[in-house]
Design brief:
The chain is of the alpha/beta class and about 375 residues long. The chain has helices at about 15-25, 40-45, 60-70, 80-90, 140, 215-240, 265-270, 335-340, 345-360, 370-380, and strands at about 1-5, 5-10, 30, 95-100, 105-110, 115-120, 125, 130, 145-150, 175-180, 195, 200-210, 240-245, 260, 280-285, 310, 325. Strands 4-3-2-8-17 form a five-stranded parallel sheet. A four-stranded mixed sheet has the order 1-7-6-5, with no helix packed on it. The longest helix is centred in the middle third of the chain and has 25 residues, at about 215-240. It is globular and about 65 Å long.
């Protein structure tokens, strides 16, 4: 039996930010991570570029540590996974955080609208406070929180980039890989290439549609399909004087389950710069849906957005009082999710979840919002325009 002040399910960017922040505020924290290593998408999927802005809160510290470890990062627009992992190890090593890897929660005990415990095989973990940073919303789903999957209709939230009718389609998955310049290569790369340095480049590779991105078998099939497609790209790179030297161990998932929380962030909120009294972060990234059948209004191009606010209510459940969600599975429509799913935004929602967990006393419905916002501001998170 394991007992902690805060249990974080998921050891990716959002979960790491949540765990470190709560621990810095005095909480004994456990991270339960399904993989055998922490790091999430930056490690598993080779998402080695920070899309979205600003870099704030604890994630800013991580970036500064990475730059010290790899001086070339100052000039690059991508980062090496090793730098990311080592930076997090450096931050966590002196904190009261215990990491359980290869631990995929498969049972949740709920009583009186509270999570009492979570379990993996014969191991049970107890806490007053739980953070779902799994990306798939696994903890919230198993706890019985209302969840969404797929696209809302255009009329439901008056979103111009939503389809006419609701469906179960989510953003496509992409296999990331890296290429390296051969010694005799004189090819001049386009300005928009993502580069680690002048020899190594990060590539958004084959993209495939997956019906259910929470299904490991479907993801495995998608990986094999993308890998087969990559063989054709290898030949093109060889003609240009490059070779593929690294392939992500997992296919990159952009979207899966999303919490239906106390508030659902939507396209109009973003584009209209809606002001929230419970805003926990000001962020920015384009609307970038990667829809499986294309969107005639989207036309395959990113749609620029203003800086916008994320409300605290988009992180909390309607019915389970001691769970908070961080990362890509916060409460947002499919369209809004296509903006707020990226790492810098996942990081700051994790940071906010960690602070909320530290001051919640086991009930996220009763968190002092003014105190939460003040603490976030003190910790270098922008909460107002």
């Amino acid at each position: 039996m394991h007992i902690f002040d805060v249990i974080v399910c998921g050891g990716g960017t959002a979960g790491l930010c949540a765990a470190a922040t709560a621990a810095r505020m005095g909480a004994e924290v456990a991270i339960l991570e399904e993989d055998n290593i922490i790091g999430g998408a930056a490690i598993d999927n080779m998402i080695n570029m920070f899309c979205g802005e600003p870099i704030q809160g604890i994630q800013r510290e991580i970036v500064e540590l990475m730059k010290k470890m790899n001086p070339d990062m100052e000039k690059a627009n991508a980062f090496f996974p090793a730098s990311y992992l080592l930076a997090w190890e450096s931050v966590l090593k002196d904190l009261p955080v215990k990491i359980f890897t290869s631990t995929h929660i498969n049972k949740v005990n709920v009583s009186n609208n509270k999570i009492e415990s979570v379990a993996f095989n014969n191991q049970k973990f107890y806490s007053k406070t739980y953070i779902d940073a799994t990306g798939n919303g696994d903890l919230a789903y198993l706890a019985g929180c209302p969840m969404a999957y797929g696209r809302e209709s255009k009329n439901q939230f008056e979103e111009s980039f939503a389809p006419q009718n609701a469906d179960k389609k989510v953003q496509q998955c992409t296999l990331m890989y890296s290429v390296r310049r051969k010694p005799d290569c004189n090819h001049q790369e386009p300005a928009n290439w993502v580069f680690y340095d002048n020899q190594n480049y990060l590539i958004w590779g084959p993209t495939v549609t997956v019906e259910d991105t929470t299904d490991s078998n479907q993801l495995q099939t998608a990986y094999k399909k993308a890998l087969n497609m990559l063989l054709q790209e290898v030949e093109e790179w060889q003609k240009k004087g490059f070779y593929v030297f690294q392939i992500a161990p997992k296919i990159g998932v952009r979207e899966s389950r999303r919490l239906i929380g106390d508030y659902i962030l939507n396209q109009k909120d973003i584009m209209d710069k809606k002001t929230f009294n419970d805003s926990i972060a000001v962020v920015n990234y384009s609307i970038d849906p990667w829809d499986p059948d294309g969107n005639p209004l989207h036309k395959g191009e990113n749609v620029e957005t203003p800086f916008y606010q994320i409300p605290y209510r988009a992180l909390i459940s309607k019915n389970i009082s001691n769970i908070i969600v961080a990362g890509r599975c916060i409460s947002a429509t499919h369209v809004a999710n296509s903006s707020c799913r990226v790492m810098p935004i996942a990081a700051v929602t994790g940071h906010a979840a960690g602070v909320a967990a530290a001051i919640s006393k086991g009930n996220f419905f009763d968190v002092d919002i003014k105190k939460l916002r003040n603490l976030l501001t003190e910790q270098n998170v922008k909460v107002d325009f």
